Structure formats: C-alpha cells, structure tokens
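Appendix B. Extra example for self-study. Work through it before the problem class; the solution is given directly after the inputs so you can check yourself.
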Amino acid sequence: MSFLSEALRLGQTPLHLETVSGDDVRRVVGLPRVDASGFAALLSPAASEHLETMATRAHALTLSHFGRTVSLFTPLYVSNHCANHCRYCGFAAPNSIPRSQLSLDEVRAEGEAIAATGLKQLLLLTGEAPRKAGVAYLEACVQVLRPLFPSISVEVYPMETADYARLTRAGVDGLTVFQETYDPVLYAELHPAGPKRDYAFRLNTPQRGAEAGMRVVNIGALLGLTDWRQEIYAVGLHAAWLQKRYPGVDIAVSLPRMRPHAGAFQPACIVSDRELVQAMTALRIFLPRLSITISTREAPSFRDNILPLGVTRMSAGVSTAVGGHAKPSKTEQFEISDPRSVAEIEAMLRARGYQAVFKDWEPIEASA
Amino acid sequence: MEHTDIFEIGGKRLSSRLFTGTGKYGNDALIAPVCEASGSEVITVALRRVDLDGKTDNVMKHIPSHMTLLPNTSGARNADEAVRIARLARAIGCGDWIKIEVISDNRYLLPDGYETAKATEILAKEGFVVLPYMNPDLYVARSLADAGAAAIMPLGAPIGTNRGLRTEEMIRILIEEMELPIIVDAGIGAPSQACRAMEMGAAACLVNTAIATASDPVLMGLAFGRAVTAGREAWLAGPGAIATLAQASSPLTGFLDRTEGAS
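Solution. Structure tokens for the complete assembly:
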C-alpha cells in the first residue's frame, strides 16, 4: 500500500471548486469532523470570503490541542553538493555556486554555535549526493551533535527504509521531505535530470521514514509551482493517509512559499498572504492534530500574525548556507525573510502570550 | 467543612483532590499562581519537556516546592519506552510517582491499555507509585490493579478536547467496582464537569488544558479547585434520592392499602 495511486488519481482529476457556495463553507466549518470533500470546500474560492470564520475555528482547535506553545528549531546545512537539477532550487547541480561539505569539526562548531542560542531541536540538511554526504556521513554528524540536541531531524535525499533505520538508531527522530509538487507531469518537467526524477520513490519517502521508526514526519509542497488549491488538497490527503496508516507518528506539514534565489526560475504563481492563511486554516480544520511548520521564508510580521491560526512549529535563528552559523556565508539555498535571532523570536512569542518550546523530546534509546 | 475525608496515595496525604498540569501555558510563570489559587498539591509534567541543563526557561523552576511531582511518560509509544522514561524521571530527581501515558495514536491520543498494563507491572515492582492513564474499561482497570497501580486514571474524553465527561457511565462502573482511587483525567473542560465527576464518587480530577488555555488561567484554577471541593462534599453528604418518574395520581400499588384495610 502506498499513497501513489491516490496521488496519480488526484493528478488526473482536478478539483472543481467553483460550485462550492458560501453556505457549503459555513456548514463545513461547523462540523465536528471534516472529510475530504469538506476539506476541498475549505480550499474553494468561495471559502476565501469566510476567512475570519475559518480562522476562528482553526484558532480554537489549535488552542485546545496544542495550547499557547510553539516549538522552535533551526536548520543546519551540512552539505550543498547535489546531483539534482531541480529548476527552482539555488543548490541545483547546474548552478555554479561554491560547493562545500562540513568536516565533523565544523559540524561540531556549527552545533555549538546553535546550541549557544538555547535551541535543542535541529534539522540537518544536505543536497542529494550520497557518495559525499551519505548515511555514514550523516551518522557521524549525528554522533557529534547528539550531546547538544535531544531532537535531530533530517531533510536529506530520499533513502531506503533500512538507511532511515540506521539513522533512527543513531538518534535521528524526525524526517522532513517535500514532494515539491504532487502533479506528476509538472514534477517531470521540473526535475529533468538526477535521481530526484523518480516521482514515486520520492512520494513514498515519508512512508519509508515512518516504517523506519521516525517519530515526526514532515511533508509539504513548494507553493508557487502550480495551483495552490490542488497542491494543498494533495498535501492534506497525503497527511491524512499517513496519520491513518502510522497513528504513532506525528505528521507535520510545512507551507513553503517560493522565494527569489540564484537560478533564473520564477514562480508560476504567487500565493498571496490571504491564500496562505486559507491553506493553513483549511488544513487545521481538516486535521486538528496536524503539526504545522512555518519557516523563515515568511516575513516577520506575517509570521507573527498567523501564529494563532494553526502554527505549532517555527524555525528561528536561521542560516540556509553551509556553515552559516559559525561564520557568515553568501551562498544560501534561498534568501530568508525573517532573520530574527532565537532570542528575538522567543521575545515575540512571549509578547503575544505564547511560550517557545525548546525541548520536546527526551532521547531514551541510549540513556536508560 | 471540617472533615475526616482522607485522601492518600503512595503514602502521601493530600488535602486537595485537584491535580493540575504544566502543558499548554502561554507563559510558565502562570503555573505557580495557578497552583496557589487552585489549591492543587499534585502536578504532572512531561519529562520530554524537562530541560535541566538548558539555557532557556525550565518548567521545573516554576513548580512550587511543596507540590508533589507527577512526571508523565508523554511520547511513549509502548511499554518499553514508558518504562525508560519513568526511570529517567526518577534518575533526574522527579521522585517515585509516575503517570503512565502510552499512546501510539496521534489522531485521538487514546491510551493503549495493554502496553499501559505491562509498564505498570514493571514499574510498580520497581517501587514507583504508578498512576496509569487509561480508557475507562473495567477489564483494563482490573489488570492495572493486579499490576500494582496506586490509582486508576480514566479519561473523560480524549486529551485536550474539553468535551467533558463523555465516558460517564463507564467511569461510574469503575468507581463502583474498583477499590483503587479513580482519578478522572483528560477531557474535563469546565468546573461543572469536574464537580460532576466528584459527585459521582471520583477520588480526584486532573485538569490541564481547560486551565492552561483559559483567558485567565489563575481564575480558572480557582474555579476548578472550588468545583472539585464542592463535588467531593456533595458526594460525602450523600445526595438525596432522585425521583426519575412522577408519582401517579392513582398509585399503582394503592390497591394494597385497600385490600389490607378490608381484611
């Protein structure tokens, strides 16, 4: 069983949301449990006229399930070598940018610089270059970082289940992998070469991570590549499918909007602030216990304002350059919009009546 | 009222029957005033969130020293993980009390009775005061009692839902059948619901979400403390019998009097 047949079916049957009425939306928002058709209604153009109603419901659900807390993490880019040709990515193989990979001493220095800010949850990132930054390298990185961070997630190239299992044994507890687009035709256009061309293998990656024992699996689509309603619908159904099949795994969704970057690729469409709010509140109402991650791609004021609408995880003190925490660098995967430090984000949360959660897992595998 | 109503768990005498929590607060500085206003003496804390060596604010600093700590095994997906978390909690100085939460369903956060019973047995043998969180099921409750639990903590509704005593009839059966204290945990959304649980004969209530996410958590803590006391006193007072049917104007057994009178 995989989500593949469902994803392919979605790709061939576009949503027809123009028939959804305002009454349909109001009815769905009031339901105790929203199904897939209700979720589609919340993504409709008609629903964009009912954002306040949706936001009110999304806020109440978030408050009751997660309280006034937001979990903080930061990414650590350890390698930007990459064999992929993703047309939208600053680190794609054809882009002539300085390539580097951190030595374990440099990884330790980065880890210490991050830990000094108080952060305890780390997301390790690489490009797709298994011969340079493969499982053994990642295991070694985790070994260095483990004493500093009780929770380490990875956002690396898609692996086989056995390799993820090696990482979970080493102490990795979370996996982030975005499908980028759920549209298989567009996916093929955007990934003309490199191992990432395999749509099905990537789509089944979250499942392999869950089977390997990851506690948190974070999925998403890169918003701006095509119609966002269709993409968010697919993301929501994928998350629901994963929740149902792996009830012990905390399923999370990110909502990355495209930003300017080193390549010449520009977004096919711009997802507006209103549309992003609609996407997020629809996801929250559809899946009340879903973790929702908002990155520093978003601007400070927007991040602050959407806090109560469903956000449960935020990145802070971010650098998207390899080795960018210990020393500043100019080659970033994408430019961030929210450069605030961890202390500044924590202060903002406090001012808004929210508590920053730094530690949300106690590693138990090795310690008891 | 001056009462001799003694509530004792794990050799500890408690004067409050409200247990509180540390999760979901917008600001952990509210924890101490909530403890004070509510009168609670037992507080649960997720070990996964405890950060003793962290540079950031540590939840433990906000828990008043007179409180009995009830560390919980939030995040445990099976008995083995719950046991490891419990041992860690004891090792870092959280004491011998442990609230077992074994949950491998993130959609509803419902507890796994089988794994909970396994963890209870192991930890009770190791001298822990074990308070297992469970679905209100009589068979599971009996197996938890056999495994050495110090109390049974059935849910009123799924965690964080504030939906009230949805499992009232099942909890009532546990109260009637079990010798162990029944502490209603999870789902209680309003003081009236906590009061109701206590009127039914629950030994205590654990309330976190409804207090922590209230607009004024301290005032809500006060309200819950009073509601739990009121419910307990009503239980002790023994409420009058409730007439479920109106008395017929021509009593169905009236003929008995007539027959007797005639003889």
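Self-check: The first strand of chain B starts at residue 7 and ends at 9. If your reasoning did not lead you there, revisit section 3.
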